[in-house]
Design goal:
The complex is a heterodimer of chains A (323) and B (319). Chain A is an alpha/beta fold and 323 residues long. Chain A has a single domain, classed as P-loop containing nucleotide triphosphate hydrolases (Rossmann fold, 3-Layer(aba) Sandwich). Chain A contains 11 helices and 12 strands. The model of chain A has no long low-confidence stretch (mean pLDDT 84). Chain B has a single domain, classed as P-loop containing nucleotide triphosphate hydrolases (Rossmann fold, 3-Layer(aba) Sandwich). In chain B, a hairpin with a 2-residue loop joins strand 4 and strand 5. The chains are: A alpha/beta (323), B alpha/beta (319).
Chain lengths: 323, 319
């Protein structure tokens, strides 16, 4: 998948919220990519645009999205529909809202399977497939769960069902949008391991969206750091933790409390900029400790500091010129 | 310094659902909190940590058990408590957008406790308000703002300012940063630590974030289905965790560096989920998820035993 210079606005009373400001990113086959960012930085907007699930008031101002060399934004609705059901799947943040409370788990899974399969399936076949899907996410007692309604299951089980729904047909790309925020740490660990296992077993690419830097460390190969609608840094996961460069990434990593009990910083002062009338230049300028004259005038380009390590910051314009 | 400050003895809180069914939210809690220390309370959702906080604050009346604050009985609803007890205990809630009224100005929010407890006269009110905001490092102009106009971190600072307005001795912090982004969490925590030193406060700090606990608490208590499973000093807790549940919690923490990884117990993996507090399992309540279950565990539940000095564990295993 390849996303180029994507900008998305939301039309609201009083103007347009310029949420996504020209983001670029790509995902290779079999790659596990993490997207990190705080509340309101546009992570979910980006993913919804990829799946064409945007809200009614969202407008794609510019840019292109390509999945396997076909352009997502230019496809007709029905083409895209077919395309999406074969290739892309998404796990949503809140499993209680993602599942329909008035249908049983069985009905919902069978719907997905029926919709996604090419030939018509018999009832018994459908049942069997639904049962397989439930067992594949290591849920015990599949027959009982298929008869249950979502509210009869616990949070962890519901999220497993959502994963089951997402992977029920062979897919190429799995998008997990904060799959564990609503869950406890012990369950979080289990769910992440499950997603990881399934992605590698089915040879899927994975996009893991989260605000917790701890989660991506063991689950992803490459990371994007997002701030206020722009990608500020991207590199391999290991490098990001060992050698973060962008002032926002550094600030973010420093504000995480450590198990070793080392002191942690005061965090990053200020808050997200106004999307309605964004200031010209870098969107991090008001919170950046090393802001320069230049940053206020124009948006910094993405600079390749080392191979595969891109930073959108003027600090790294010339190598060795870090002041 | 080690004067007995808060003493919780065998406190139970059952919520009635129907006929003979009860949710045993607190099922016999024993905890002493000394003056000037920070006790961390950790547990998954449904373990009863918020119920304990609300029972201490008098939002619930305990079903049975004793709670004393400086030897005064406070095992009752807040309405029955004297004004001076209410002044001495305050709470900061998880979500400041929910706990602060969006329709009244911050000046109004902060004046209420000051006037109710007669901390200042009306004449000096304005000065005191500015001073309060200054203690949490917010500028004066915030007095005239309404809470929807300020960021989440700033809102939580206002909630903290409101809690310390009455000069309390004891503060309950119910997940004060879990609704905030990490980049603002640091500011809140450092402010809380600073205030504790300056005002000589005692904290009961509730959170599910163990890495955060490592940095703020003096002692840590782990709760599971209404009971304390392990209680130890922070150092002991992380260097020598004993209860299988504690190890499971620690092994689930996502960490960001190699040094941290070494502190995580490897021998145990997270499995299963917390059962419903309506139908507790027979015997030990952790039996459904514990990898070391023996026959004995199914028969009876262990007491909270002091294994080492100041290190209590509720488990039948020999340590």
């Amino acid at each position: 998948m390849n996303v180029k210079n994507l900008s998305v606005d939301y039309k609201v009373y009083g103007g347009q919220l310029k949420v996504l400001d020209g983001i670029n990113f790509y995902v290779k086959n079999n790659e596990r990519v993490g997207i990190i960012g705080e509340t309101g930085c546009g992570k979910t907007t980006a993913m919804k645009t990829i799946l064409r699930l945007q809200a009614n008031n969202a407008v794609v101002r510019q840019g292109s999205i390509e999945i396997e060399n076909s352009s997502v934004l230019e496809m007709s609705d029905s083409d895209f529909h077919n395309y999406r059901k074969e290739r892309v799947a998404m796990i949503f943040q809140e499993p209680m809202i993602a599942l329909n409370p008035v249908f049983t788990i069985g009905q919902q899974i069978e719907d997905v399977i029926r919709h996604a399969s090419e030939k018509k399936l018999k009832k018994a076949e459908l049942k069997q497939k639904a049962r397989d899907v439930i067992t594949s996410v290591s849920l015990p007692d599949a027959d009982r769960i298929l008869k249950n309604y979502p509210f009869q299951l616990s949070g962890g089980m519901r999220q497993r069902v959502c994963i089951a729904l997402a992977i029920s047909m062979a897919k190429k790309l799995l998008i997990a949008d904060e799959p564990t925020t609503a869950l406890d740490v012990t369950i979080q660990a289990q769910i992440l391991e499950l997603i990881n296992q399934i992605a590698s077993k089915k040879k899927m690419s994975l996009i893991l969206i989260t605000h917790s830097l701890g989660l991506t460390r063991n689950t992803t190969d490459r990371m994007y750091v997002m701030y206020a609608g722009s990608m500020v840094e991207t590199c391999s996961t290991k490098r990001l933790y060992d050698n973060p460069l962008h002032p926002y990434t550094v600030g973010l990593l420093n504000s995480i409390p450590r198990l070793t009990g080392k002191e942690f910083s005061n965090g990053i002062p200020g808050r997200l900029p106004d999307y309605l009338n964004p200031l010209p230049g870098c969107r991090f300028q008001d919170r950046c400790p090393n802001v320069m004259e230049k940053c206020r005038k124009s948006k910094p380009p993405e600079i390749e500091v080392e191979p595969e390590h891109w930073v959108a910051c003027y600090l790294f314009e010339q190598k060795g010129d870090k002041s | 310094m080690n004067q007995e400050f808060i003493n919780i003895k065998n406190v139970k809180k059952y919520f009635h659902i129907e006929k003979d069914l009860y949710v045993k939210a607190l099922d016999g809690i024993d905890l002493k909190i000394n003056k000037g220390e920070t006790v961390g309370l950790v547990g998954e959702s449904g373990s009863g940590k918020s119920t304990l906080a609300y029972t201490l604050m008098g939002m619930y009346e305990p079903t049975s058990g004793e709670i004393t604050l400086k030897n005064t009985d406070i095992a009752m609803k807040a309405q029955k408590r004297s004004l001076s007890i209410k002044r001495d205990m305050q709470i900061v809630f998880q979500d400041p957008s929910g706990s602060l009224n969006p329709r009244i100005s911050i000046s109004n929010i902060l004046s209420r406790p000051l006037l109710l407890h007669k901390i200042v006269s009306k004449k000096d009110l304005h000065e005191k308000l500015i001073e309060l905001l200054a203690t949490v490092e917010l500028p004066e102009e915030h007095l005239y703002k309404f809470t929807p106009a300020i960021g989440g971190g700033e809102k939580q600072l206002v909630a903290i300012a409101r809690a310390i307005a009455t000069n309390p001795e004891f503060l309950i912090l119910d997940e004060p940063t879990s609704s905030l982004d990490v980049s603002v969490q640091g500011k809140i925590i450092n402010t809380l630590l600073k205030l504790k030193k300056e005002l000589n406060l005692t904290y009961l700090f509730i959170t599910h974030d163990l890495s955060l606990m490592r940095n703020v608490a003096d002692r840590i208590a782990i709760m599971y289905l209404g009971k304390i499973m392990e209680l130890a000093t922070t150092k002991d807790f992380f260097e020598n965790p004993l209860h299988p549940y504690t190890k499971m919690l620690l092994s689930s923490i996502p960490v960001i560096s190699k040094e941290e990884e070494q502190l995580i117990p490897k021998e145990i993996k997270s499995q299963g989920e917390i059962p419903s507090p309506v139908n507790l399992p027979q015997g030990c309540r952790f039996i459904t998820r514990c990898p070391y279950v023996t026959e004995e565990c199914e028969k009876k539940e262990s007491e909270l035993v002091e294994v080492e000095k100041d290190h209590f564990v509720r488990c039948l295993k020999k340590f």
